[in-house]
Design goal:
By secondary structure, the chain is mainly alpha-helical. It contains twelve helices and two strands, in the order ααααβααααβαααα. The C terminus is likely disordered.
Length: 299
């Protein structure tokens, strides 16, 4: 009698699916750096854009399949640091900033701010569905820089070719760096709903921008990203009049005293155990999370 063929663990496959998109994002980040080092800035920009698509899909797939995890959040941030922090900075360095040490220093500032932006994101918003972002999202900043070279090859760029673009590019990178760690609020990609007219308008603008980029990516991709950056600034200025911007910031605030005084909730504890059916031991006799015991207790 032949042994039964084991069935594939579909649950494991579903759990690995979002992380597969995340690693695809990392692959495109590495390809962008490689293409930029070879002087192929056309494909380097595309690879960063493809990484942005992967970054959008991994979070949505994780929420749809209910497979969000702390591991996925941390992995996503580490990958974003490469694809939208290191890769765009290297593209700008190889394209225009490799003439002096100032360009290297500005690239470092951009990468450092992208990493700090992602660390703050993990603390505040990681693993949850979002309607707005605290600070310019690193994918938006990265794609703004990555599509700059495309725009520089158009006739519209040539109309203002008398500008000191080397200096302007340094200023753009510094502004994007500041916005990533600022209190400026940026809307997340909208979920279009017929019950909410506001989402219809934002969704229509989002789709129109995608169509324009598909029609002529060199001419419209960079202006579309600049429009998003400017929209967040204008929107936050209006909201700031009513004191609706965030009042705290883990990058600047010292919460040491507050954290020592506040008890850790069960949902925040890194070694949370499942609730057992039987009545557990008294609070003073709880098992330490690293002590030996059954598998259920260690979880």
């Amino acid at each position: 009698m032949r042994p039964a063929i084991p069935r594939p663990d579909m649950r494991r496959a579903v759990v690995l699916l979002p992380n597969g998109f995340t690693l695809g994002n990392l692959l495109f980040g590495v390809l962008a750096i490689t293409a930029a080092s070879r002087g192929d800035f056309e494909w380097a920009g595309w690879f960063v854009v493809f990484g942005g698509v992967m970054d959008t899909l991994d979070g949505r797939v994780a929420r749809m399949t209910r497979t969000s995890s702390r591991f996925g959040v941390e992995l996503d941030s580490l990958v974003d640091a490469v694809t939208f922090g290191v890769a765009p900075a290297f593209i700008m360095y190889f394209a225009a900033l490799n003439h002096d040490n100032l360009g290297v220093f500005v690239c470092f500032i951009y990468i450092a701010c992208a990493v700090m932006r992602l660390a703050r994101f993990n603390i505040e918003q990681g693993g949850r569905a979002k309607t707005q972002f605290h600070g310019l999202p690193s994918p938006a900043a990265g794609m703004t820089l990555a599509t700059y070279w495309w725009f520089s090859q158009t006739s519209l760029f040539n109309l203002v070719s008398g500008w000191p673009w080397h200096t302007v590019l340094l200023a753009v990178m510094l502004v994007l760096s500041f916005l990533m760690i600022s209190h400026v609020l940026y809307p997340a990609p909208p979920n279009i709903s017929l019950r909410k007219p506001g989402t219809i308008v934002l969704g229509a603008a989002f789709i129109a921008a995608i169509v324009l980029v598909i029609i002529d990516h060199k001419r419209y991709a960079f202006p579309a990203m600049v429009a998003y950056v400017a929209y967040g600034l204008l929107r936050t200025f209006v909201l700031g009049v009513f004191d609706r911007v965030p009042s705290t910031d883990p990058l600047m605030d010292d919460d040491e005293e507050e954290e020592t005084a506040r008890p850790i909730e069960l949902a925040e504890h890194p070694h949370r155990r499942r609730r057992r059916r039987r009545r557990g031991p008294p609070l003073g006799d709880q098992i330490h999370p690293f002590s030996p015991g059954s598998e259920e207790e260690r979880e």
